[in-house]
Amino acid sequence: QLVESGGGSVQSGGSLKLSCEASGYTYSRFCMGWYRQSPGQEREGVAALDSDGKHSLTDSVKGRFQVSKDNAKDIFYLQMNSLKPEDTAMYYCAVGLYVAPGACPVAVVDNLNARGQGTLVTVSD
Questions:
Q1: pLDDT value at position 41?
Q2: Which residues contact 48 (CB under 8 A, 6 or more apart)?
Q3: Can you state the percent helix, strand and coil of the chain, rounding each to 5?
Q4: Burial class of residue 86 in the structure, from the number of CB atoms within 10 Å of its CB (0-12 exposed, 13-18 middle, 19+ buried)
Q5: Residue-level pLDDT at 62
Q6: pLDDT tens, 67-101?
Q7: For residues 73 and 82, is the Cβ–Cβ distance under 8 A?
Q8: CB count in 10 Å sphere of residue 19
């Protein structure tokens, strides 16, 4: 089960930190991350973190977002800084088995087999 929290409404330039509590997963090799979807838009992988600690970010959030994991608590995070109106979306966390070499790419995140219910992020001008 994945449970997201931390969404909300902020003004442009503000920050939010999303959390995802992941319970019941015992993958030895995994990819976990975040994807987002705005109304009428395709799902977009935003950030990914694999079991080796390698991370990936989509180009539009590089330098602004950071993905991390608290191993002791099985919680992973998306720190979002310098938010822009175009970041407005429902954000979902996901986790799944990933055994391919190299860092798991953001493009796979929205196809991972376990996903949360989403948390809404709204950024206003």
A1: 94
A2: 31, 32, 33, 34, 55, 56, 57, 67, 103, 104, 105, 106, 108, 109
A3: 10, 50, 40
A4: exposed
A5: 98
A6: 999 988 889 999 999 999 999 999 999 999 988 88
A7: no
A8: 17
Round to whole Å and give the CA distance between 17 and 6: 6
Sign (positive/negative) of CA torsion 103, 95, 47, 18? negative
Answer for the pair 30, 100: CB distance below 8 angstroms, yes or no.
no
Low-confidence residues in the chain, pLDDT < 50: none
Look at the block and give the residue holding tokens 């954000």: 91
Which pair of structure tokens corresponds to residue 1? Answer: 């089960």
* Paired sense of beta strands 55-57 and 65-70, if any: unpaired
Q: Residue 15: exposed, middle, or buried by beta-carbon count in 10 A (0-12, 13-18, 19+)?
A: exposed
Q: What tokens were used for 24? A: 């019941």
Give the pLDDT of residue 71: 81
Residue 74, SS3? coil
Task: State residue 49's pLDDT score.
Answer: 94
Tokens of 14: 């503000």
